[in-house]
Amino acid sequence: MFLKFPVLCLIFHCAYCISHHPILIIVSYDAFKYNFFDTKLVPHMETLKKQGTYADYLLNVFPTKTFPNHHSIATGLYPETHGVLGNTYYDPKTKQVEHIGPQMFRYSNNVVPIWRLNEDQGNGRYSGSMMWPGAYYPYQGKNITYRQDFDDNMDWYKRIDTVISWVTDRKKPANLVMLYIEQPDTYGHIFGANAPQFKDMLRKLDNITKYLQDQLESHHIADKVNVVHLSDHGLITITPQTFINITQYMKGGTYTWAGATPCIQITPHKGHEEEIYTALKDASIKNGHFKVYKKQDFPKQWHYKNNPRSAPILVMADVGWGLDDMIEASKKYAKIFNFTLTNSSEFGVHGYDTSVADMHPYFMARGPKIKKQHKVSPFHTVDLFNLFTELLELPQMPNNGTLGNIVDILNDNKQGRYNVGSVVMVTVGGIVAGLFIIALITVIVLLIIKHRQNLTTVAALNKRFPQTFQNHIESQHLLDAEYA
């Protein structure tokens, strides 16, 4: 009985083992398109969406691929500035095609992602990354406190539990965590967005969203944590009838290929620049379903050409069309997942211009610093960095976003770094900690007194009776009648 009170105090105290700074969890579901809510397969997400602030969609960056967009979300910069120009790209410095790794994200020390900015402020600020693209690697020569590299075998629920453990860590509680889940992108590529497997994946994402909220509530921190749910891009379905073979127009050994449908980066070998461009340009006119751009002609709104990593030539398939890589990818998917490949087989792709509605991701947020039951106009992915710095109360950094685009998301009542809620939380936490220590001392004292009483009881009985009572419970029972 005496142990119940300190145990309850300990549980209550642990609810306040969180950062005294504003807390933010950013959750990304890869390729979750803005209108997947219309499927009616994500009721929990729909409920949470309407409880906080949401936009109909986000305007992401070109190319609408995973790595460029996640890094723009994290930095507030366009790809031509942060240097991640695709899921793969040809690097003129290394003279090879680069895939995900430190080389891809280590473009410039002037690029400071939100997790690095947060932790650099010190004073008990700690960042965590649960598989967020690029966050596993050091920036400015430093790694963040918590980081989990990509592992698609790691159970989603374990990912959430780990994130919660970082936020509630008693010694180094994270006040910023970036959480990435690779679905529904993976199943979208393999089966297309109309397949039952894809729809089942949407249901699973809905359930994991509810699980995150449940864990926040069970740890009594739901009202103290700001949560932003978003995605990097949408998805569109295409079939093999729309695959275009562009390699037939170029001579083998005269170029380097990087990227994937629908935008392919072509780097001609020296002396073959005009030859390759002319061949592709003529083919695009005859075919009518893809376009070819020289670097100097990349559309301004792409914010894509002012970088040495930008390819000299870009081939862009029209919306709903794919290129050579899909010819091989479709065969691989059919073999691995044991289905028959036909002209009507569906596959998901993304990477088209940001003006294409099917490429648009979603956005919703909730928490103590975010307006409730509120809708805002669509805004840009690069604006998110400013939202994060405002929520975390970090200094502003130069970026390509616009602060004015996100202010309507924030609560009207401006909360300082040490707002009333934070002061109350810390004060209550201190009081509870003090009560716990007092209760613990009290229990120890009572146990000592009770132990001494038991020794006295045994001694008294051994004096009155010939046998020796070593068991204090038995001896106490014999004396009960006398004390009644």
TrEMBL record:
CDD domains: Enpp (cd16018). Keywords: Membrane, Signal, Transmembrane, Transmembrane helix. It comes from the Eukaryota. Residues 1-17 form the signal peptide. One of its GO terms (molecular function) is hydrolase activity. The chain crosses the membrane at residues 423-449. PANTHER family: BIS(5'-ADENOSYL)-TRIPHOSPHATASE, ECTONUCLEOTIDE PYROPHOSPHATASE/PHOSPHODIESTERASE. This is Extracellular Endonuclease subunit A domain-containing protein. It comes from Callosobruchus maculatus (Southern cowpea weevil).
